Amino acid sequence: MFAKTFALFAFTALAEASGSCPAIWSTVASDLSQSFIGSNGCTDLARGAIRFAFHDSASYSSKTQYYAPATGGADGSLLLSSVEITRDENNGLQSYYGFLQEKYSKYKSQVGAADLVQFAASVAIVSCPGGPKVPTVVGRKDTSTAAPDNLLPKAFGAGAAQQVLIQLFEDKGISQPELAALIGAHTASKAVAQEAYGVPYNGPQDSTPGQWDVKYYSDTDNHPSGVYSFESDVNLSNPNSTVGQTFQSFVNSQSKWNAAFAPAMAHLSVLGISQADQANFVDCTSAVPSGSHARMIRAAPINDRIR
Q1: pTM of the predicted model as reported, rounded to 2 decimal places
Q2: Distance CA 50, CA 54 (A)
Q3: Is residue 223 annotated as involved in ligand binding?
Q4: Inside any domain, residue 20
Q5: Which amino acids does the record list as binding Ca(2+) 1 (predicted)?
Q6: In a domain? residue 298
Q7: Which of 112, 157, 169, 294 could pair with 174 in a Cys bridge, judged by C-beta atoms 3.0 to 4.6 Å apart?
């Protein structure tokens, strides 16, 4: 009940964010899109942006003693701390970290680090053909204090057990239906640090990693050749729980998943931030570009357009 109530409050705060979005964010969006959209859909940098935003915000737990500004949540620490990015849980993000550091250096006189992290993820999601616009706000406070360790989910091992993951996310205020929607972002995922578990470098988690579709959900069930599912995802897909039942409901239902993912991602993007601070946020969803499907088709070779 707490998770559902918190999610409602958080999404309401996002919906009520007022004020005009600073024009700089449209400039940032255009800049990022150049690196996030490729001829085959979203790029590795776009994938990095989505994972980076998740790791920055999800290092939060309601069980952690409060410290400003977000108790390890969406505070930009993954970008600003030289320690946090070196943790094993962030292996594979170093290239994107360097990319975003350059963008932050370029725009930091006008944008915050925490906002840039989450805004970049919103741009990355729509850069994947089929990706929805996530309600996107700015106004977060930054910190260079490294977030608490060991609060991100494990892909393999004991930490990947279903009940362990459910509890981990409940402690963040993320409900089971939200969790089922959020892990669908693995539709665009390629593993970069799971070789020890038999997953090759760049092994995809669904058969169309350049697109934002629901093949991830059916591929996790069916295990087609060339797709490498994480143990955590397989465990969460089990319909013996609410998260698994919701997971299965997204199979072959793109519109249902997109409708669930957008508010869940918006909730994730403000984890740890007080309602008082969220009340002062500015809605910059309008600065996030429209989906990239048409742009990808126009950019593709003519033979690819008719396949």
Answers
A1: 0.90
A2: 6
A3: no
A4: yes
A5: 56, 73, 75, 77
A6: no
A7: 169
